[in-house]
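Schema walk-through. Below, the input block comes first and the output block second. Nothing else is stored per chain. Lengths vary across the set, and this one has 480 residues.
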Amino acid sequence: MARKIVLLVLALWFVALRVGGEEAQAVQRSKPRLPNVVLFFIDDLGYADVGVFNQNKAAMGYSTPNIDRLAAEGIRLTDFYVPQAVCSASRAALLTGCYSNRVGISGALDHKANYGINANETTLAEVFKSPKAGGYATAIYGKWHLGHLPQFMPTRHGFDEYFGLPYSNDMWPNHPVNKNYYPPLPLIENDKVIQLMPDQSQLTTWYTEHAISFIERNKDNPFFLYVPHNMPHVPLFVSDKFKGKTKRGLFGDVVEEIDWSVGQVLATLKRLKLDQNTLVIFTSDNGPWLSYGNHAGSAKPLREGKGTEMDGGVREPFIARWPGKIPAGTVSHEPVMTIDLLPTLAKLIGAEVPKDRIIDGLDIWPILSGKKVKSPHDALYFYWGKELQAVRAGKWKLHLPHTYRFIETPGADGKPGKDTYPKIELSLFNLETDIGETKNLADKYPEVVKQLMVFVERAREDLGDSLTKRDGKNVRPAGK
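--- output ---
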């Protein structure tokens, strides 16, 4: 009798365990999985270097079908900006949600830079790793450029994995102007140099292969994948599978390989049935390096390119796709910036932005999700180094007097041309009617200039301005 009672108790116990386990699984299944995020950040890709942004697509001499498909299936932002038209500053803003001047990063850090991103800053990757976000898997495959010393490496700032170059691919002994100034270019995996002077024709392929492997290994967990391709920053390199493929020459070949990379990642997401739960973002760090002529892209009809705070330098192609969440084929003309991605993504995954410091970015999910709403910013600021050069508010852009890079004679085949530095006087442009910043309306609309000068003074007070010799009250130091 006692034995029967024991067996009955054991049977009931096993039933209870099974029922409880099934209920737990049901709850787990009913709990929505956090979205994956894939962020492509291309180097020196101009506003018109993507088919869907080019006003004369047929004359490009190459095509970008996978990137164009992203736009057809998602949203295209026509007025998306970076705060500085140069590599390190642009990446600092993207990854911290702050103006690069706020976090002490400007220019393009090289092998001699003794500073980088401060350990006290919260990067986009660290937002994804936060407990409230559920502890995403995170990886970067490509160009870092926020400090090359060990304490500045991606794996110290929220990324589980890193494979790529620590700075620009022209920072090597074969630089066309500074011959032998730079040491051998290092290829780094996690925190170790695994190769010196790697075959740059394989970089786009290697980054793509790593990205696919990362997705496959994390298909059952939420992940954040950051792919900052080195190309089409000069020197241009392309693999044999794309060499000589386009009418545009080497530049076209390189961009078609980047488009292939995007297509490979999209195909992997679809194959693993992750398509519907993945937000894919595509944009660039600054405009084209026009000094390099046929090895540079185009920002037309925007004015100038990389190294200027004209729209050709700071307005970038931007596409976001998330089936079922972002309406297909939508377009927004609201001015927003890379600084907005960190708070936007944080909100999407239930994480918090740091509360103990200023974060300049604002949530733009209402715009990305297709709602007809205005930009959350009353103004956007554009610096070159520590000098405030321009501000945009609504349709208006005000340039303060400053010199800027103008290409007098373009170079060719990997050699830079001749740059000059003319001065632009105080200039007001209506970007709705004059996208090329050609007609100065400052004299015609003095009241608008006066309104925008209020924002100028606010920026100088907050972030500083070397031209007026002012230190910003809320600037934080870079890491040393």
